[in-house]
Amino acid sequence: MVHNFKGIIFDFDGVIVDSELFFLQSIQSYLQNKHITIQLNDIQFLIGQDLNKSAEDIKQKYRINDDIRIITQELTKCYELICHPDKIPPMPGIIDFIKTLKKFNIKMVIASSSPQDYLQRIMKRLKIDSYFEKVFSGRNFLRNKPFPDIYMAAVKFMDLPLDEIIVIEDSPNGIQAAKSSGLYTIGYKGSVITQNTSKADKEIYNFRELLESSCICRFATNC
What we know:
Elements: E1 7-10, H1 20-33, H2 51-61, H3 68-82, H4 94-103, E2 107-112, H5 116-126, E3 134-137, H6 149-158, E4 165-169, H7 172-180, E5 184-188, E6 202-204, H8 207-211, H9 214-217
Parallel strand pairs: 1-2, 1-4, 2-3, 4-5, 5-6
């Protein structure tokens, strides 16, 4: 465990909000409209990617003739029908966790594959936007997770040594991206969608568990 950490990079979907199920259900709905029946675990590998990459993988795997732009538009419509961004719930304990980190002057940034406006909209609704110094969206990078580009940009922005930064991720794609950047990575398993986080340095099931761990506790005067 990193004991002297001064910054945390958060993934968003599946870490700050419990949205992964809605994401998979929207893809399932899209494919049903194409008369393709699948189980949710058939497409779990798409979690952690940006929408364009997911559209490319869906097009190839299910031999869909539409171009990527049309697929992404239809996937977005399915997602908004299943769950509007204003209704996506935060993960249990995440708000208190973020507020506690702020008290200890921990730098916090977001590194997510999701669109910037989607991220900002939910963060504003949850009233956590002011706690983060920067929000990185995968839409602004040529290569998204599992490539490390977004995490490398986040590290550069934070201006901290690698051994003073922790990443919290929930997907294999995100964990691979963070680990490829040389970052200590925590696999969060509190989502309703269970993912393989075995390649993370540590796995947790709730934020209280992390809050009470030694790496957080060292910043509290009563520890």
